[in-house]
Design a protein that fits this description.
This protein is of the alpha/beta class. It contains 11 helices and 10 strands. Strands 4, 5, 6, 7, 8, 9 and 10 form a 7-stranded mixed beta sheet that branches. The protein has a 3-stranded parallel beta sheet with strand order 2-1-3.
Length: 325
């Protein structure tokens, strides 16, 4: 009997040992062909910038092409669905924002992907506050001015947004300030900012990263940031809380994920290389100049952040009464 048990245990162990060896071998040889990074926005925004900085350095280090595949639209749902359906082999990566994995389930009755189950977290790359900014011609220099204008125009004052976090910030602002405004959606922060700079829309809520260069150039006027503390990049710009809206404390984030089922050893290899790139002084300085704070987390930390934000941001969305279907 003991001999039979030993034989059975040995027979069961052989496939497991073989699987582990195959996984190790796959990770050791990875990558052997081009990698694509799916970005849910058009070129020119903060998410696209993070993707291109990392893609260039991965290409240089691994000697294989790493390309950016921009798939804007549908509040990041189009790109997320494409990424979720990709082969879990490490050759497709995706850059979700907080809306993709922590907001959309509270905004849509049904999604073509599962924010938690469809992806394998790789790393939380950066966080950044959002900023409310206005065209310089708008007679508003502080939050109280925007509130007064919104009230005087009986809800016709418009604000642009190029991503769900910005829309959530705008709607949270409306609820907190007890004003009405018209939300004007765009497929990305780039097109949204273009219309604000051009004077077509007077106000914008945007992530600080893509908005930074326009603020620095004086093309828009920063009025307040949505984080609990002032941004080091805009130390003279007050927070919403300092401006009389204590309930507003929102930051947005960008991370890297792979399709669910991607081998853990490959995920670990991706995490090690991408976090190394993000922590390089030239990378952190470049992204920092755009208002982004580098995080470079472990996969486990990123997974927990996704789940925690789903609870927090879901509460903000329900309180603001935002629904997209």
């Amino acid at each position: 009997m003991r001999t039979l048990l030993k034989l059975l245990v040995g027979a069961l162990a052989l496939p497991l040992a073989h699987s582990a060896a195959v996984a190790a071998s796959a990770a050791d040889s990875y990558p052997e062909r081009p990698i694509r990074i799916i970005v849910p926005f058009p070129p020119g925004g903060g998410t696209d910038t993070v993707a291109r900085v990392v893609a260039a350095k991965l290409t240089e280090h691994w000697k294989v092409p790493v390309t950016v595949d921009n798939r804007p639209g549908g509040n990041t749902v189009i790109a997320a669905d494409l990424a979720a359906r990709a082969a879990p082999d490490g050759y497709t990566l995706f850059l979700p924002i907080d809306a993709t994995l922590s907001m959309n389930q509270s905004l849509y009755a049904k999604l073509p992907y599962d924010p938690i189950q469809s992806f394998a977290p790789v790393t939380l790359a950066v966080t950044m506050p959002m900023v409310m900014a206005a065209h310089p011609s708008l007679p508003a220099r502080q939050v109280a001015d925007v509130v007064a204008l919104a009230k005087s125009r009986n809800g016709s004052l418009a604000y642009a947004h190029g991503a769900l976090p910005a829309q959530v910030a705008g709607e949270a602002f409306k609820a907190s300030a007890k004003v009405d405004m018209v939300a004007v959606p765009y497929k990305g922060s780039g097109p949204a900012m273009t219309d604000v700079v051009g004077g077509q829309v007077p106000v914008i809520f945007d992530a600080l990263g893509p908005a930074m260069s326009f603020v620095k150039a004086g093309k828009v006027r920063a009025i307040a940031v949505t984080s609990a503390k002032r941004s080091p990049q805009l130390p003279d710009v007050p927070t919403m809380a300092e401006s009389g809206l204590p309930g507003m404390d929102l930051v947005t984030w960008i991370g890297f994920v792979a399709p669910a089922g991607t081998d853990r050893a490959i995920v670990a290899k991706l995490n090690g290389e991408i976090t190394r790139i993000l922590r390089q002084p030239e990378t952190s300085e470049k992204l920092g100049a755009m208002g982004m704070d580098v995080v470079a987390s472990t996969p486990e930390q990123f997974g927990q952040a996704i789940r925690d934000d789903a609870v927090k941001l879901g509460g903000v969305i329900r309180a603001a009464g935002i629904k997209l279907d």
